[in-house]
Amino acid sequence: MAKFIFDKQPKLTYLTESQVKEIHAKALEILERAGVYFQSAEVLKILEGKGCKVDYSSGIAKFNPAFIEECLEKVPETFGLYDRDGNLAMVLGDGSFTFDPGSSGLYFLESDNLTARDNVADDLRKVYLLTDALSGFGIQSTALAPSDVPSSICDVYRVYLLLKNSTKPILTGAFGLDGVDNIAAVCAAVSGGLERLREKPCVIFDVCSTAPLKWNDVSAHNLIDLARLGLPVETISCPIPGTASPVTLAGSLLIHLVETLSGIAVVQSVNPGNPMIFGGAPMTFDMRSATTSLNSVESSILAGCYAQIGRWYGIPVHCYAGLSDSKVVDAQAGLESGISGLAAVLGGAHIISGPGMLDFVNTLSLEKLVIDNEIAAMAKRIFRGIDVSEETLAVDLICETGQSGDYLTKSHTAKWFKKELYIPPLTIDKLNRTKWEKGGKTDIFDRAKKETEHILENHKPKPLGAEREALLDKAFRNIMDLKKIDDLPFGPNS
Description:
There is one protein chain. By secondary structure, this protein is α/β, with parallel strands linked by helices. 46% of the residues lie in helices and 13% in strands. The protein has 18 helices and 20 strands. Strand 15 and strand 16 form a beta hairpin. Helix 6 packs parallel to helix 8 and helix 9 crosses helix 10.
């Protein structure tokens, strides 16, 4: 297979080329011997039509290895992701990467850095405004599931509210069988129709399998609905070593790979060439506290491993990182977010979800989102590395300056210092102690809180425009009427 190459690997690798090939072969063996469960007769029928061995009584489909490899060949190596206004925002799979906030949090951490409460729609609106202003995040995510919005409409409501408050591309997911169509409808309303949305997608859909080796009814139908619409699909496998997958990392990696390959096969069976992202959310089960963590070092290793495999296949990669299990924004939050965020960048992920999140991805903090924006910026600077050229080596300058050591006044310094040196904003303390004491002895949370308040008070996202906003409101109003919902916060009638 021509695009299965090993010369474009990331800077941090866990697997040798022979190990990647062995794991791929073992995944094909499991797909053929054990198969995967689909809680959908429609999906089983599609796979049966492609030559898979299907047992409708058990719901299990078994895959021919050659068929899986044919499906892998059909997945685009790159595809364009566009903003709300149809401008190219990034090309996924071209070697670049971006961060976005974590998704579907239940709680919101107040600015006292102690009080966590049920989140509401206004909290989500603030996340969108903040993320729109922060340059470290190239994608918006539907970061919270507001408690003041009915669950029957919450998935599409989150996208509706986002389209009103930001131009950035969207990473989201559907909660029900009609969720994909509803979300596509509101996105199409601002994009100029479904065909235009397909040509210039502004939204990526997460679709989660269930470890081990299962796709439930909603996820299975999400796969085929998205394929029929031709919209980008991000498969999310969630192995948990020791509980929902083997305790060994290699065994859990295999569970991830089998589930992911089966999802790819479904999508490519319906729409060959449909854009996809090789995603995941591996967790670890803490044997001492009985909690599941997306942010353990093993989770980072698993993410790095499947990132290598995804890049070997030639498919854009997603992972979760830049988050913390701490309950407050403290040193643990910074330690875990920084290490996992940098590991994800060096491991070769193209989309990295998680900033802003605490407490096992349950709680979001606006202040942490501001701090994590700096983690994203620093990780990007590390990834960029060093520019080696005649001008940057500065041989003539070094010889001319000699032992005097005065480079501060040189024109070369004035030209290059902003390009070469990452200069963090005031959120990061770079003052000496005397100036820091005179400035009020603030810590990073104090400064992030001040920056959060400043952005929320002053940042004005680009307006959608009266005509497109009316189309968006109409599309969403139709969905509200079908679900017999009269009013919602920030809705068409508010």
